[in-house]
């Protein structure tokens, strides 16, 4: 009897284990399904949201928070608040192997990035610890990047889905094209970059934008005290701080790939320089928000790091920034090649109705977003062609246009009593659309991924130079500046500037 009972008990345990395994499989399937649904939600939130930027962020972040919370609790990952850690010892062996090869290159790369980060000021900081050749090469690289690489950032900024930012870029380009005077802010920004490197670049940019916002706020307060508040004084300002999250303000698939690659490049480089300094690595992994990778980490043995001399610590802290700058330059080459030699063959230009003017015949008749294909019977494919044809229109003349939403005829009106030009009241802009076909779509996806990788590596590199806790710059400052009161004061100033840069999102 007892024997039968023991056998039955084993049978029950096996059945329980099978049930548990089936439950685990169901749980894994549920997590995968949740991840798919979350990706689908943020994709549609990015591409088809009918709400404003703030509401899109709120809904996207809320969904990521909920998805992350469910996955973290069900899979028992470390983390909280919608974020969780995926850590492992896998990959440490690869870092060890890479660190043993080309040690000179990795060490020189870290110092090169330091010079990019601190410009002319890098020499007094590392005097006696850096070769003149590395210093000269780093400073020459800084000048060339500012002259020939940074101007191409506007190509990548088009993929950030922030209307305020896009408007500011368009206005800046128009202002630059028409401006013939001295660009004093540009001179100050470039001068700060050459003297203090990209640290000076990012700090001056933050403080300049903060000053503009505070000035607009003061004008707004004047209108409030006068009894007729004008929020437009603030709504025209561009926030200098924004979360860059794939599916919310970046294309989803290309954004996830670019972000993940950028994070891996950054953190692996920290690990390589740590192993070069004989520091043990505990683990490596990713920080996930919902289903989106938002960070990566290589966890060294901190007690071993603090025992190193200041130069070895500086190399470890600067390694991630340096690697991001190297990756930025590699992707820059591909961006330029694709832009000039591939993009013209896979896209075509269209003229789109951006708005209609009240008081003119087309207002409320021609749908916003319509593509104009002909004007006065002549085929048009870009703004220059259309403007040349429309310049012949006179008040009282019938203007016929053809769009993808229909054909229309209007009697043109003058802008004012002295105008000899006839207008129908459409505000137009030129857009590039991807040609139909799998090859064109695939090539444009590659261009999107390369452009985002170019931009994100630059942004993460310069932002990590800021003297803020948890950033690499903070540890670089703490290690290389003797006057810690200066570091604390600079940290406070930058933090206040960042807070001010958030203000425009509330208006």
Task: Throw out a few tags for this protein.
alpha+beta; six-stranded antiparallel sheet; single chain; 13% strand; 3 domains; 12 strands; 507 residues; four-stranded antiparallel sheet; disordered N terminus; Pdz3 Domain; 61% helix
- Radius of gyration over all CA atoms, rounded: 28 Å
**β-strand amount:** 5-15%
Main pleated-sheet profile? 6 strands, antiparallel
H/E order of the elements? HHEEHHHHHHHHHEEHHHEEEHEEEEEHHH
Question: What is the typical, i.e. mean, pLDDT?
Answer: 84
Q: Could you say which overall geometry the principal axes of the C-alpha atoms support?
A: globular
Distance between the termini: 79 Å
Q: How would you summarize what this structure contains?
A:
This protein is of the alpha+beta class.
What report would you give on this structure?
The chain is an alpha+beta fold and 507 residues long. The chain has 3 domains: 2-88; 92-173 and 180-343 and 442-506, no CATH class; 358-424, Pdz3 Domain. It has helices spanning 2-48, 53-75, 92-99, 103-118, 122-125, 132-149, 153-157, 163-178, 184-225, 232-235, 252-276, 302-306, 310-341, 343-346, 383-390, 438-463, 472-480, 484-502, and strands at 79-80, 83-88, 281-289, 292-300, 347-356, 371-375, 378-379, 398-403, 406-411, 413-414, 422-423, 426-434. Strands 5, 6, 7, 8, 9 and 12 form a 6-stranded antiparallel sheet that branches. The chain has a 4-stranded antiparallel sheet with strand order 1-2-3-4. A two-stranded antiparallel ribbon has the order 10-11. Helix 4 (103-118) crosses helix 9 (184-225), helix 4 (103-118) crosses helix 13 and helix 11 (252-276) packs across helix 16 (438-463). It is globular. Mean pLDDT is 84; it is low at 1-24.
